[in-house]
Amino acid sequence: MIDIEVPKLNNNDTTYVLVEWLAEDGQRLEEGDPVAVVETSKAAEELCCEHGGVLQRLVTATPADCGQGDVIAHLFASETERQEFLANQSSTKPSTVDIPVGLPTLTEPARLLAEQHGVEPAALARLGLRVVREADVRRLLSEASKIEASSGGEAKTHTPNRAQRAVAAAVSQSHQEIPAAFTAAVVTVDSALATARELSERTGALIGLPELLVAVLGRLHERFPLCYGTPTAEGTLLLPEAAHVAITVDVGRGLFAPVVKRAGEQPLDEISGLLMDYRIKAMREAFQTEDLNGANILLSLNNDDDILFAQPIVFPGQTCAVALGGTRREAVFADDGSVTSRSVAVVGLAYDHRFVNGSTAVEFLKAIKVALESPATFVRGAEVGADAGDR
Predict the structure, then answer these.
(1) β-bridge partners, 66
(2) Does 192 lie in the same domain as 326?
(3) Ramachandran category for residue 217: left, alpha or beta (phi over 0 → left; psi -120 to 50 → alpha)
(4) What is the CATH number for 41?
(5) What value, to the nearest 5°, has the Cα angle with vertex 133 and ends 24 and 316?
(6) Which tens digits make up the pLDDT trace of 53-71?
(7) What tens digit of pLDDT does each residue of 98-110 get?
(8) Most CB atoms closer than 10 Å: which of 48, 162, 235, 349?
């Protein structure tokens, strides 16, 4: 008998939702066959069999709350072995606690939301549902708000969605556990902007400062390994073998941080295509868990022209977060009194002071500044894909 366990899907959620089964009891599955869909606060993920066998589900009612390591099913070598298991379960299974008639089963997100707003069990029972999901509780709260508003009651309230609550949990954990520091540098970006325009025209890819900065961060992990490290429970730091850069994406449906894996090995046009793909996935809420996992540094994009700079949090499991502010023009006064102008952006760095000292942080920022102000130093190695000349 082989257990099917729920794997760790991300660092932000303590519980997941088993949304649906993709196979039935008694069905023979092969290695790699999809067996269930599990939903996190950010994405839906198919769980696949790591071994072949005959399936027996342990959790039959969906949606259902589950956590990392929970055994949700067994795989048996044969149907005979599965039937023996069921027979043994029938003879040894302890009596269950009686559930009051009329009370539905709540998924964990639904239970937390109901407790947060003081929703009575009787109100949930009146929904007439066997299983109450988070969306059902939200609908109940919305209807109650409308009734209260129409009767001259208190002002409407806003309840954050699952994605926002996951962000809140990560922010709270970061502030509680990580002694973060912050510093910032002004970067002249005229050359970087000109290089981005030239590459965009030549390749047809949309390349701008974010894409250039991803490429820069992808090439600095060997010089600044502490800035890409992964803290351990023992207080040590796992050093990186490559730069995996997460980029913040927010199109109004929640904050996501998908990852450019091995960013230092990706050509700029491929980075551009991947970031565009991530923006589309954010709009469609179509991320897969593999899109969001594995980062060892964060790039927080706050590059609206009206934003001077923003201080990001250091995500749990990382040591540094880089922030890119908006681009603006500023006057430059020469020694002879003449005035010129330049384009500048503020690049900030939040860092875990347990592992990264201020001097290292400053040197890291200086390296980013040099690369963006002299883009030819890194563009030659990350310019475009091999087929760019055919475009």
Answers:
(1) 16
(2) yes
(3) alpha
(4) 2.40.50.100
(5) 95
(6) 999 998 877 778 888 888 8
(7) 334 456 777 767 7
(8) 349
